[in-house]
Amino acid sequence: MPNPENHGSDARMKTFDEMIDGYGRFRETDWQHQRERWEELREGQSPQVMVISCSDSRVDPAQIFDVAPGELFVVRNVAALVPPFETTPGRHGVSAALEFAVQFLKVKEVVVMGHGMCGGCQAALTQDLHGNDLGAGGFVAHWIDMLDETREPIAEKFGTAGREAERAMELAAVKVSLANLRTFPCVQEKEASGELKLRGAYFAISDGVLHLLDEESGEFRPA
Ligand SMILES: [Zn+2]
């Protein structure tokens, strides 16, 4: 999610019409080079890995992991969050994608990838959008309030501003999503039987370094 407080210059960013030129290049190069692959993929997809990443324009999983079409099943949303298994009314987009990936595509790994300079995590930390109307920040506020409990000790220890606090929130959010993934019965079953692995990751935008979570120690270490 773009950080509204801290966005960069947009002067050199392409419009969608300009991106159609990119599509032209894709048709000339990648599409031509990978014709066989696309032909195979016409029959269906069978990715082994699902990634849950932030909508932020800087953290595209396919780009970071340099994978070919068909290899990565991706969900992106504000702050790369997975809500818990909920049966309340409403349209549960992440749950639907997870269910499809785990039960039908039978992916073997689900990766939650947080990232540095995450506007969604920053908003969770500052709670600046709390109380806003739906459509005026309220949707974001309600989405990221799933981090409220985790936020408390972080805000107490580091305050609500500065990279130290923000990074702690970003890393903690990955752990919240992993814990929420484990509230889904299908995830519990498949993790217990060894059919499914959960992984936590963190992409530090400033230096481009991917960190992987060691769940035993709770530490994130460079990959
Ligand atoms: Zn983000």
TrEMBL record:
InterPro entries: Beta_CA_cladeB, Carbonic_anhydrase, Carbonic_anhydrase_CS, Carbonic_anhydrase_sf
Reaction equation(s) it catalyzes: hydrogencarbonate + H(+) = CO2 + H2O
Organism domain of life: Bacteria
Root EC class: lyase
Alphabetic keyword roster: Lyase, Metal-binding, Zinc
Assigned protein family: Belongs to the beta-class carbonic anhydrase family.
Record's protein name: Carbonic anhydrase
